[in-house]
Protein: Metalloprotease
Organism: Streptomyces spectabilis
Amino acid sequence: MRIQVKRTGGFGGIERHAEVDTTARPDAHEWHALAERAVADGRGEPPIGVPDGFSYQITVDGRTVYCADPRLTDDQRQLITRVLKEGS
């Protein structure tokens, strides 16, 4: 599974992008479950965010959803954090 996260917005307006390929990971099943829950709660189009807040585009195996601060689910927040931390 390929998981991509793109973060835009924020005070500085700096875009950040990261990707994780779970294919060879020993914890792939955890990533898959988390990604499926995060995508299930996403929107088909970018939501209206708050001033200086972050907006996110999450793509899992070609399916893209959108979400924004401060209305992230716990699963979305956890997936975004993990991908931006561990992704390349």
Q: What stands out?
A: The beta strands are 2-9, 16-21, 54-60, 63-68. The first strand starts at residue 2 and ends at 9. The mean pLDDT is 94.
